[in-house]
Amino acid sequence: MIIYLKDELIMEKSPSYETILLQMGCKSTKSRKAIIQLLINAEIPLSAKEIFYFIKESGVSINLSTVYRTLEIMESNGLLDKCMSDDRVRYQLILEGSKHHITCTSCHKSIPLSICPLKTIEKDLVNKTHFDIKGHKLEVYGLCPKCRKKEY
Amino acid sequence: MIIYLKDELIMEKSPSYETILLQMGCKSTKSRKAIIQLLINAEIPLSAKEIFYFIKESGVSINLSTVYRTLEIMESNGLLDKCMSDDRVRYQLILEGSKHHITCTSCHKSIPLSICPLKTIEKDLVNKTHFDIKGHKLEVYGLCPKCRKKEY
DNA sequence: CTGTCTGCAAAACGTTTGCATGGCG
DNA sequence: CGCCATGCAAACGTTTTGCAGACAG
User: Which nt has its C1' nearest the CA of A66?
Assistant: First the structure.
């Protein structure tokens, strides 16, 4: 868990299980708790299968269908980002106030960023494209300090 | 086809089939030509199945396996971006010098952008995260002028 | 107690693969 | 002509679905 206080660039902000469940508007069950908790703690985007196995190996019995169904609810509530990562479909919690990440292409660790470079160009973009801009997504890729060392 | 000359923000740059084939380092066939040409002309990210049907309906006989195999080659050569778009896996040509797009969430039309807002913050990012930044991806979402009107 | 959620098994779907044939260079 | 690419069909992995029983509120 990385926390840089007074740093405007890097940020780690963990929502609570309760908050997320509330936003999902559904009942609290042990499966959902395990899935949400895992996504909160995960530093890398996870596939449905990975989520399933992680939880199973932690001793909580769970079914793959339940994982898919829970992810579906979270996604439709705008809480989860479904993306292609490492050539697989993976899911990552959308942290409030932090839509952007810097991700390691080697270990897939993902650190949320608090900056948003789009703010500077958004108005200009609207003027040129006449789009009604609803949102955006920024992903930065590279090697984290640890993996950098491994590659000498 | 949108072209704004002398505009630093929006850009449309079409590579040729020959250039792409050369970068792929493989034989020229009618299937590959059809796939690459379609991706060059497409204004929206396409799924494998869509590519397959578009080409078939244009009168060129083609097989789904061939589509997948060609997309695989293009992707591994860094010519194609495989992403989740409209909740499906879709492919989009990576235009040289233009890695970013503004995409309509309604009709999925995608316009390449020539600006790169990351340049301004990249150095700062390196200092803070100590990542060896290899690349990045920016996607802007919204409603294009046409779809804006449809929604009154 | 009621409606929602889960587990299970089967189905549906998307993607990959092996092999024989076809076609580019 | 030799090798690479294609078509086909089957295999494979992922995701979805229907249903009966379990459980939260």
Answer: C6
